[in-house]
Design a protein that fits this description.
Layout: H1 2-23, H2 34-44, H3 47-52, E1 55-58, E2 75-77, H4 100-116, E3 127-128, H5 145-150, H6 154-169, E4 175-176, H7 200-216, E5 220-221, H8 244-249, H9 253-260, E6 266-268, E7 273-274, E8 277-278, H10 283-293, E9 299-301, H11 309-312, H12 320-330, E10 335-336, H13 343-346, H14 348-351, H15 357-373, H16 386-392, H17 396-406, E11 408-412, E12 425-429, H18 432-435, H19 451-459, E13 465-469, E14 480-481, E15 487-489, E16 492-493, E17 495-500, E18 511-515, E19 519-522, E20 537-546, E21 551-559, E22 563-567, E23 570-575, E24 582-590, E25 595-604, E26 609-615, H20 622-633, E27 638-644, H21 662-670, E28 676-681, E29 697-702, H22 708-716, E30 772-779, E31 783-784, E32 789-798, E33 804-814, E34 825-834, E35 839-847, E36 853-854, E37 860-861, E38 865-872, E39 880-886
Parallel strand pairs: 1-2, 1-10, 3-4, 4-5, 6-9, 12-13, 12-27, 27-28, 28-29, 31-39
Antiparallel strand pairs: 7-8, 11-29, 14-26, 15-16, 15-20, 17-18, 17-20, 19-26, 20-25, 21-24, 21-26, 22-23, 22-25, 30-32, 32-35, 33-34, 33-38, 36-37, 38-39
Helix pairs in contact: 2-15, 6-7, 7-9, 17-22, 19-22
Length: 887
């Protein structure tokens, strides 16, 4: 009896132990290996919960129905709005203005909900943009990326990145959707400003210097856009049909270095097609190359709304379900959308078998692994005490230093700069002197200093009078959209729109609605996708136009024609034939308060519709400002012209000239024979061909960040010496584009019949207020094996009268190769600071393996043969040369 009872008790104990072990949540045990925790958690997840770890959006828990996020989510880009109620109950309430403390509390409250109220308690990854500073109020805005590249100073980049990473982590951000390591191989591209330039080596060095500090602080970096986000004509997200050899040796290089050297744990795909397949659903790119060849263990996210591009843009998927399945099956791990409700479009193939369980588990495992690595399961919250540390940070001196080092002196005839000591009255012209533009993907800046403020501050108590006149504007618009207050129809504001399901206004309209104004871009869809085909519809708008004042007006239409305009029954504009984009205006005498019958007709039989009703009312009197500035220039001792460009995401440029009335003003001022310096503001090449010889100095300051005004002032007056170098090539004319320094040899010649093939300003170029001499090239030996390192030493001497910095640049040319190689390639550089008369020895090391390329069999090799080492201070000025042999 005793033995039976004892056996029964032991049995119960053993069953209880087995049951307890089965219930033990390994994924919550920090002592367990990460892989074991991932697999344990994965086994507990439903198919829906797995999907939500593959879905990311901007947003928060404001006004969210209870239980909406019980399944969890990959992460959120937390908005700046107030937090109250919603899924997490009464979390916290905040003031309207965003600050770091509020953001931390908000992220913590959101994290608390997911940890405590979602079924499995999986924390989120709070993510944000941080291209050249976290895009948040109070965060430091450093110079734009292209400016940071122009410093040619990776050590400075590391300091800047470390500062941004600290400001990000103390606010609770654990992933940044940066940097952009695409190559700017065509400077017409509107996103050139976001890059580190045209060269794969420079981009790699700067990219690694940027991502490494973030990853070391346990913030995931996301190099983008994978791959080659600029196509023919310098157009954003245009299809890419380049050879894999070219892609492997150029555009893929910075990504590979970011993953292997910088340890980036994520990557973002691009919008464009790559060899006929969307990059977001490109199996060769995401699986064969990235995950198999490179053994990438991180996760792949799409660009915002890019997955759906397969069916609404590329037409390689029949619907959103299909687009979702194609992308995940190709190797995408996380779908990035802009709204919560979009999940309905993409979740079906996760549940119905179109995506295999193995592929889903692989994607989810990559996300979970990152969350475990970040320590989010053990420490999901940010210590609010750390806000005090954040408040004590002062990165403004670093922002100013980075700005000053980024400036490139393109021209300095007659020593126009620095401003001579005898100058007493300076005229500053241009809206860019007071706008302090920061460039794309920027926060508001932290007490940003514009150029005029910087000049006034620097010259205070120096007996120099600073006069400002806006005079010119890069954003001159003489015709504007007619606003709704001047349009009416049937006692309602706006015009009555009748929409027809044919291209010739026949029959009854499919529907009618009141449009507040006529300013439309239907580039992806028709005005109503359910009722109208995108390539077969027409519209008639009718109503009244009321003139605010009496006088002569320029009245018209702007768009990709197929339009007519009637006023009081009279046909004034007739562009019914579909040709191109155009602006058509007529002069009309209008009387104040009188209402005129207005009719507009438009038809579309191809797609990509664009139409705007415009007039010249209310436009600024640009000519008056122009003339006023010219008058003030006659009385000034010295003239500083700030001139800028317009660019950005999906805002490519067909012309590289200065827009608006800026160039005419430069021409007019040049007739005064006054010392004139032009400050260029922009993130890409600017064509100075037509006016450069009419001014003394040209200083390119890119977008210099929140301390740009102080840095500009110190540079103009000589307290700082320009040391930046061009990370992109500036062409003489747009007809030379694309134009990069590291092109392959031509079969005939580089020149045009009517123009040289040479650039206006070459890659790596930049002047100084002093002069330098680079001499005495010495190599550690003449013959190398594949595992050796080329060590080049040169002597650099400051032969001028001012302290300054020079960038010694080392290029390589393969003299004879089995496959064509670039004419030259940057392989090393070193920035050195020297006092007047001072000399320093500079050493540049190049591992021989950096000479590798793809042979005819597409194998990476370091080919035996003769290579030419060339050293100088730009890609066009390479006076020191010596051949080496690789054995």
């Amino acid at each position: 009896m005793y033995f039976k009872l004892r056996f029964k008790i032991i049995g119960i104990f053993l069953l209880s132990s087995v049951y307890s072990a089965a219930q033990k949540q390994i994924y919550k045990d920090p002592k367990q290996p990460i892989e074991a925790r991932v697999q344990d958690l994965l086994k507990r997840m439903t198919p829906e919960e797995k999907f939500w770890q593959c879905f990311m959006i901007p947003g928060d828990l404001d006004n969210v129905p209870k239980g909406q996020y019980s399944h969890g989510i990959f992460g959120l880009q937390v908005s700046a709005g107030n937090q109250g109620g919603g899924a997490a109950g009464q979390l916290l309430k905040y003031n309207a203005s965003e600050d770091a403390e509020r953001l931390v509390k908000k992220i913590n409250a959101i994290q608390k909900y997911f940890v405590e109220e979602s079924r499995l308690g999986i924390p989120i990854i709070p993510f944000d943009e941080a291209l050249h500073g976290l895009v948040r109020e109070g965060a430091t805005a450093f110079p734009q990326s292209i400016g940071l590249a122009a410093t040619f100073n990776p050590e400075l980049m590391t300091k800047v990145s470390t500062a941004i990473a600290r400001e990000s982590k103390l606010r609770g951000i654990r992933q940044i959707l940066t940097p952009v390591v695409n190559l700017a191989n065509d400077v017409r591209w509107g996103r050139t400003e976001e890059t580190y330039g045209e060269d794969p080596f420079l981009t790699s060095v700067m990219g690694v210097s940027f991502v490494a500090p973030f990853e070391n602080m346990e913030i995931i970096t996301t190099p983008k856009h994978f791959l080659a986000n600029v196509g023919e004509g310098g157009r954003d997200s245009y299809p890419i049909h380049w050879s894999r050899r070219y892609l492997e040796e150029t555009h893929l290089v910075p990504f590979y270095n970011a993953f292997t050297k910088g340890k980036s744990r994520s990557v973002m795909t691009s919008y464009n097609l790559l060899d006929g397949r969307p990059a977001t659903a490109n199996h060769w790119l995401l699986t064969e190359k990235l995950k198999k060849d490179w053994n990438f263990k991180g996760f792949v996210i799409s660009d915002a709304s890019a997955v759906g591009g397969a069916n609404v843009l590329h037409f390689t998927a029949k619907d959103y379900d299909d687009a979702s399945a194609q992308a995940i099956n190709a190797g995408l791990d996380v779908i990035f959308q802009t709204e919560y409700k979009h999940y309905q479009l993409f979740i079906p193939p996760f549940l119905d078998g179109r995506i295999s369980k193995e592929r889903i588990d692989d994607a989810v495992s990559r996300v979970l692994k990152a969350k475990f690595e970040l320590g989010l399961f053990e420490n999901p919250y940010v210590s609010e005490k750390e806000i005090e540390a954040l408040k004590k940070l002062n990165h403004k001196p670093l922002a100013e230093k980075a700005a000053a080092e980024s400036f490139v002196l393109l021209q300095n005839n007659n020593q126009t700069l620095p401003v001579p000591a005898n100058v007493k009255k300076i005229l500053v012209v241009g809206t860019d002197a007071v706008e302090a533009r920061l460039g794309g993907y920027s926060g508001p800046g932290n007490k940003k200093i514009h150029i005029l403020d910087g000049l006034k501050k620097y010259t205070e108590n120096k007996g120099i009078e600073i006069i400002y006149s806006n005079g010119i504007d890069w954003n001159v618009k003489e015709l504007a959209t007619i606003s709704t207050e001047y349009l009416s129809s049937e006692n309602k504001k706006g015009l009555k729109g009748s929409y027809f399901s044919n291209a010739d206004l026949q029959g009854n309209p499919s529907y009618e609605k009141q449009d507040e104004q006529v300013s439309f871009k239907w580039t992806l869809y028709s005005p109503d996708p359910e009722k109208l085909q995108p390539d077969n519809y027409s519209i008639r708008w009718t109503g009244k136009l009321e003139a605010p004042d009496s006088g002569k007006y320029q009245l018209g239409l702007r768009g990709n024609d197929g339009f007519r305009l009637y006023l009081d029954g009279k046909l004034l504009i007739d562009r019914w034939e579909k040709l191109s984009y155009s602006t058509q205006t007529v002069e009309a005498d209008l009387v104040k308060g009188k209402k005129y019958d207005l009719k507009i007709e438009f038809h579309e039989n191809r797609g990509e519709a664009n139409l705007e009703l415009i007039w010249n009312y209310g436009r600024h009197n640009y000519q008056k400002d122009f003339n006023e500035a010219l008058s003030l220039a006659q009385k000034a001792d010295y003239i500083i012209i700030t001139a800028g460009i317009h660019e950005g995401e999906f805002q490519d440029r067909s012309s590289l000239s200065l827009p608006g009335n800026q160039e005419p003003f430069i021409h007019e001022v040049s007739t005064l024979n006054k010392p004139t310096a032009v400050i260029l503001v922009g993130g890409s090449a600017i064509k100075t061909t037509a006016w450069k010889d009419k001014v003394g100095a040209i200083l390119d300051i890119w977008y210099p960040g929140e301390e740009g005004g102080n840095a500009v002032a110190k540079t103009l007056f000589g307290a700082e010496n320009p040391s930046g170098k061009l990370p992109v090539t500036f062409p003489v004319e747009e007809g030379q584009l694309p134009l990069t320094y590291n092109h392959h040899p031509t079969g005939r010649g580089n020149d045009y019949h009517d123009l040289s093939g040479e650039p206006l300003y070459p890659f790596g170029f930049g002047l100084s207020y002093t002069t330098f001499e680079i001499s005495g090239l010495q190599l550690n030996k003449a013959r190398y094996s594949e595992n050796d390192t080329i060590i080049a030493r040169v002597n650099v001497k400051n032969t001028g009268s001012k302290e300054g910095s020079e960038v010694v640049q080392l290029y390589v040319k393969d003299l004879l190769a089995s496959v064509s190689r670039p004419v030259i390639e940057l392989k090393g550089f070193q920035k050195v600071e020297l006092k007047p008369g001072e000399s320093k020895s500079v050493t540049i090391e190049v591992p021989v393996k950096q000479l590798q390329f793809l042979n005819e069999k597409m194998d990476w090799i370091v080919e035996k043969g003769i290579y030419r080492i060339m050293i100088g201070n730009s890609s066009k000025n390479l006076p020191l040369k010596q051949n080496i042999e690789v054995l």
